[in-house]
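JOB MANIFEST
job_type = single_chain_structure
chain_count = 1
residues = 372
[input]
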Amino acid sequence: MDRSITLLVLGGYGETGKVFCRYLLQETPARVIVAGRRLAKAQALVEQLQQNFSPERIAARHTDAADVESLRQSFQDIDLVLVAATTTQWAKQIAEAALEAQIDYLDIYFQQDVYPVLATLQSQIKAAGRCFITQAGFHPGLPAAYMRQGAQYFDQYDQAIVAFAMQTQIQDFQSVLEIVDMVADYQPEFWQNGQWKIGTYQDAISVNYGNRFGVRSSLPLSMVEIKSLPEQLGLQEAGVFTTGFNWFIDYVVFSLIALSNAVKKGLFRQAWAKLFVFGLNTFSSQQAGVVFLLKAAGKKQGKHQTVEIFSDHDDAYEFTVVPVIACLHQYLDGDIRQPGLWMMGHLVDPDKLITDMQAMGINIHSCASLGK
């Protein structure tokens, strides 16, 4: 494993960024720079982390994603920028600055329109010999990895359905702006009978999320990372599904977002994000955590077989971070550090990813049932 690498975590003092910094120091030998527009917050986190980790491994840095010169200065002495902030409007600018500084790049953006933007730089990334990883985390990030993992159970792989449910408390409304945008642009696709279908609320499926969340109705989501998998794996049915949040968000907040966006896209965006956080923290159940699973079906030795890969954890922030750390293990080992623009779920070795996730505390188990 590379012991000389320096990572800059953009948005490192945010709710997810804090978890990233702790796990990077705990699970890798890297030097970590906590970066963002508010230097005082970055320094406060550094002082906190220095109580448990070697002080020389941690530093703070002012970095403004909206300022090209700030990015240039911040990227001068690092090896990889890890984007843990909701800075999707600056995604291309950050990537271009990383290219200019000749460093590698990884982001955990949830919004699906980021990949096409980064794809315009694909030839430049490859020519520069840089490794850019996008769509990392657990949604996106794990759907493609779990679907690929499921293939090993079948001679003929017919169905791969990923579903997840999560519940957490959120303090900063900025962290849910991407969800507000997703609701405004909601037009999911899933693969059925060998073709892509535009989903609606009528395409909800019932999923058993185990003891933590029980049986819940789940709606389809669009995930760019799974678009190429049905043809690659020979699937007849594939999709990503998720539950709602609670009655207030699902029926009140989401309806208001849809109505305001019918007038003007992005109207009252921050107000809806604040209302979302209020509704989440006020009306949700106290059962926190994440359940993420793959339900797969196909044939093995001529017989019908079903497989479930079930994973869960108590903390949604940690469940977002751990798959990325597992991905970085493969990157630091040199196994996946290759030139080009990659989606995490396509690049990683699924076996190694799941093994590392388990070692970091994610509960994962597989169950196969062979029919006649």
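[summary]
The chain has two domains: 6-138+318-356, 142-316+362-370.
The chain has a mean pLDDT of 92.
exit_status = 0
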